[in-house]
Amino acid sequence: MNKLVPRMQAKTVYDIDLNALRKAGIRGVITDLDNTLVGAKEPVATPELIKWLSGVREAGFQVVIVSNNSKERVSKFAEPLTIPFIYSARKPMNIAFRKAMGMMGLAPNQTAVVGDQMLTDVLGGNRMGLFTIMVQPIALKDEGFFTKINRTIEKAALTFMKK
């Protein structure tokens, strides 16, 4: 399998079929933060996201936020929601994915990764044998320099893969 291709795609996290994940044996969700759960400049969860995250937990899934962003950014978002998190994750490197699975006590075949970037979330998850789900980014205009570079590379990769 191409390491840049997600197992599932969804427009937003709200469009992810949790029943299908459960049937596939998934018990935990590692999720990116910026442009996956909220826009890159949004400091806190929206009421809609709070409701969705509550539903994910009620459905029996564990959730860990894994972000390449700073401790300040990620903790201000995750702590009010009582969601465990890993900051400065250095995705697509394996260490943060392994740590998140350890926090949940789950194996790779029980874990999904949700994110908006092929080169960090999808590549990192696929390299670990996780169930990868790619969502469309929420707010492209607020992205940082390196994310914009990743988007350019992703666009070229998608064009190449279509050929």
From TrEMBL:
Which SUPFAM superfamilies does the annotation name?
HAD-like (SSF56784)
Q: Which InterPro entries match?
A: HAD-like_sf, HAD-SF_hydro_IA, HAD-SF_hydro_IIIA, HAD_sf, PGP_Pase, PGPP1/Gep4
List the CDD domains hit by this protein, alphabetically: HAD_BsYqeG-like
Which superkingdom is the protein from?
Bacteria
- What would be an example GO MF term here? phosphatidylglycerophosphatase activity
Q: Where does it sit, as one GO cellular component term?
A: cytoplasm
Where is the secretion signal located?
A: none
Q: What protein name applies here?
A: YqeG family HAD IIIA-type phosphatase
Q: Which organism is it from?
A: Paenibacillus contaminans
